Amino acid sequence: MRTDPLRGSAELSSCGLHRYRLDRWWSNEPRALVCMRNPSTAGADRNDPTICRLRALLQDRPGIGGFTVVNADDRIATDPRELEALLAGQDVAALKAARHANLARIRTLSAAASVRIVAWGNLLAPGLHADRVIAALSLDGTHPLDAFALTADGAPIHPLARGHSRVPLGMPLVGWRADRPAPVPTDGEEV
């Protein structure tokens, strides 16, 4: 196990309600990009159980010197149900603009990532938004996506999965792909 010091940073909105990215690194080797469903309250200097588990899962992998966390939606919510309620109450135009900016950020970070890991469990419902997130992460299908492991339904397991779904340390990443092609977004489509 590496004992290099863990350094971190986070990019948050000025209001503190959105986390655009969170970074942890222990060396100058390339960082993995990890995409989950909703941001937690972890910040530049504050870890939570998910961030601690990500470090444990990634720190001894050759060629990975850290990770960048992004989320399908950037609104901070510790419970996915809370996130859904917040998104449902948001102005449609504002939600569309926020998601567009988030997808652009994911695409830019994905282009620089050494590996792209999806880890949202069953929390990202299939549909147009999920398809757009997958397209941004995979750079329109030109780069592979990996997962720590898969659920029985083929969803990418979240780092904090428990019980028989818990990912053992040192387990190799598995390839993951959506079972449908990502659509090209057009104006007037749902958010």
From TrEMBL:
InterPro entries cross-referenced by the UniProt entry: DUF1643 (IPR012441)
Pfam families per the UniProt record, alphabetical: DUF1643 (PF07799)
Protein name: DUF1643 domain-containing protein
Organism per entry: Methylobacterium frigidaeris
